[in-house]
Amino acid sequence: MVLMYTANPANEVEEYEHLGDVAQFALEQYDQINGTQSKIKFVTIDDRDNPEHALRSLKKIVTTDQPVAVIGPLYSNVALGLKSFVNETKLPMISIFSTHNDLTKNSSYVFRICASNRRLAKAMAEFLLPDVQKHKLNIFAFKDLSDDYSIDLADTFRHSIEGTKINHQEVLFRGLSGIERLKDVNAKLWNPTKKDILLLTTRDIVAAKALAAMESEPYLVAAFDTVNFQELMKKVKSQKMHIRIVTTSQWIPQKSDFSKKIEEAFLKKFKKPMNISGALTFDATYTAIAAYHRSLTKKTTLTQALKDSSRITGVTGQILLGQDGERIFSDQFLKDEILK
Q1: What is the strand order of the sheet 43-46 is part of?
Q2: Span 61-119, pLDDT tens digits
Q3: pLDDT tens for residues 197-245?
Q4: Do 340 and 128 meet the contact criterion of CB atoms below 8 Å apart?
Q5: 10 Å Cβ neighbour count for 238?
Q6: Is 206 helix (H, G, I), strand (E, B) or coil?
Q7: Residues 6+ apart with CB under 8 A from 51
Q8: Residue 254: which region, alpha, beta or left (left: phi > 0; alpha: psi -120 to 50)?
């Protein structure tokens, strides 16, 4: 199996697990829990958060190692860049944190262990709208035109509030440098009031950069499935702040007995707690291994086993993949806290 991860994101301030280690940990846990001895080897690819590099690397490994599945990648833009190739080669790919709505569209070989942007945006809209309508608040959605994930998420949120009479504006820019240019052309934007909600439909590092530029505190900040947003804020923002932040999350630590057990083993092995990207990587790998064993028993393809309606327990809850490659019944939580 090929595990695709991002070792060094575009900005060095971001930190991620080496997801290859997490995948190996998931294999060890599967064998321990099920009394098996899986003959599975992981070949890891640092996709460099670059679709072209990821595709070249995957094509090379497919030729030399003939893998049975791809686990990953982490980001939507890389996953979308691999979609045509996995369809052509009929190589099942189980994405980890790729929420773009089009990922599984018109594909029999792409699967998603996380929720789609459609689900995440709907959950956030349902949370925000009552307050927005009651207090006549404004929503400013930050949309990074250099990032497919951000575009899809911002567009999906806009569609989810169609028909409602609220003030919703999109703040358009391109990448981290675009945030800097925005400071020069829209001074008012950086002085939000208690009538404003900042909706950060961007990756963590971009969201942190935007929030760090704010010279006043808004009504609240809303963000999606943050991984290390608060740690980033500590590194890029020096002045004191006291901001209410609402985020979607697809995993709450310690929520189930299974999660508690795996988290304890993870902490013992790695000397640090599991985070959301590690949890989703564990579940994607665990799902692939379980399906691989079923395919051997039933003498079917791995793709057929992934679609056979088998339910397994993961750290992020029950895992059941539909015929469309989407995860059914994926949990979504909303965390409402104070960012200090």
Answers
A1: 43-46, 2-5, 70-71, 93-95, 110-112
A2: 999 999 999 999 988 999 999 999 999 999 999 999 999 999 999 999 999 999 999 99
A3: 999 999 988 998 898 888 899 999 999 988 777 666 665 555 666 889 9
A4: no
A5: 8
A6: helix
A7: 77, 78, 80, 81, 82
A8: left
